[in-house]
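Final paragraph of the annual report: two paired records, presented back to back.
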Amino acid sequence: MSDRRLFWLLYAVLLVGALNLAVTLYFHSGKKPSEASLAGGASDVSHQVTDKEATELAQSVVDLYNDNKIHELYLKFDDLAKLQFSEQKLSDELTKLRAVVGRVDQFAYANTELAGKDAGRTYLTLHFKARVSGAAFTSGTVKLTVSRKDGRLALYGFFLGGQSS
């Protein structure tokens, strides 16, 4: 891999990571849950999101990403998340990401974990394994940060990372 390509790969990964970190940190209250609450929360987490729900949300997000429908993808995010970044910022980051990771060809739901709690909301991270193409990687991960709102999953974060095989 050329030095220039490696530089842009590192730059894109860092920018997307920073965006994801900023959104995630915003939703954390700064308080560490006790070990007892984590243990209780861990068993509750698996029941908060069904495999079908997780896969349907991921399919809609991945389809919009693959089709480069930035406006529609931006609208998928909860209003609280949209306060953290503009549609233009999302467009800029996804353009860089697409050049490095490419498109998502297939994905499969792996698991859900507790991301944090803030202001009465429980935030979860949905993890997916993915096959990607069109850039430097052939496999990767998709992570969605969500919370239950009005009986549905509200999107707060989207992360796509590539892995060398």
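The closing record of the year follows.
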Amino acid sequence: MDEQGYSDLLHSSRELSSFYLEIGAAKSKVEVVKILYGYNLSEEAFDEGFPDLSKAVQDLPDDDSTTA
């Protein structure tokens, strides 16, 4: 079992679950970048470590100003 991949990015299963929930609830790419910043995670590391989430984020609008 290779636990090293995620352990460099997020330190616990609780933190990983929280990360997935926050990214899943994001309504814009700007919001995702803020979440990544909060987890000290670069966009490049996000793309490499979480390819499925990264792909889902691509469908989000760039910002949420259109919903205001």
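The chain has five helices and no strands. This concludes the annual technical report; the extension proposal builds directly on these records.
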